[in-house]
Amino acid sequence: MKVVLLEDVKGTGKKGELVTVSDGYARNFLMPRKLAKEANAQAMNELKNAADSKQYKIDTQIKEAKAAKEKLESKTIVIHAKAGKEGKLFGSITAKEIANEIKQRYGITVDKRKISITGEIKQYGTYDSEVKLYNGITAKIFVQVCE
């Protein structure tokens, strides 16, 4: 019997998959526990629509990430900070501050965990950084720290 899984079932398959199982397993275990439903025309149509919806969402996220990369690529983010003697900062510049500055200046929301900084930013100067926008899509930016 062909069934569409409504939940992950160990040894059988993942949620949303179409699998073939024995009739007794489907009728006595999967269906009473609401783990699966019979693969009729309506269920197959719902499965196809769910897959199309998921693919559309992925495509729009990739499109947005590429547009954000175009805006950010090779740009310089200027952050003002106070420092003591010899240009040494009080504290350091964090990924959170860089993410806030990107949001203010370019209107792009970036998760602070997706910003990679080489080393620590504890002095005035310009530093290289990468922003991961989507899986495989990164933008290289420069962070300039000044008074």
| Major sheet description | 4 strands, mixed
Low-confidence segments? none
Give the strand order of the largest sheet, numbering strands 1, 2, ... along the chain.
4-9-8-6
| Separate helix tally | 3
What distance separates the N and C termini? 71 Å
Please give the CATH class of the largest domain. Alpha Beta
What is the C-alpha radius of gyration, as a whole number of Å?
Answer: 25 Å
CATH architectural name of the largest domain: Roll
CATH fold-type name of the largest domain: Ribosomal Protein L9, domain 2
Look at the helices and sheets and give the structural class: alpha+beta
What share of residues are in beta strands? Answer: 25-35%
Q: Give helix and strand order, one letter per element, not per position.
A: EEHEHEEHEEEE
**Overall morphology:** elongated
How would you describe the overall organization of this protein?
There is one protein chain. By secondary structure, the chain is of the alpha+beta class. The chain folds into two domains: 63 residues, Ribosomal Protein L9, domain 1 (3-Layer(aba) Sandwich), CATH 3.40.5.10; 81 residues, Ribosomal protein L9, C-terminal domain (Ribosomal Protein L9, domain 2, Roll). The chain is built from three helices and nine strands; from the N terminus they run ββαβαββαββββ. A four-stranded mixed sheet has the order 4-9-8-6. A three-stranded antiparallel sheet has the order 2-1-3, with helices on one face. A two-stranded antiparallel sheet has the order 5-7. Strand 8 and strand 9 form a beta hairpin. The longest helix has 32 residues. The N and C termini lie far apart (71 Å).
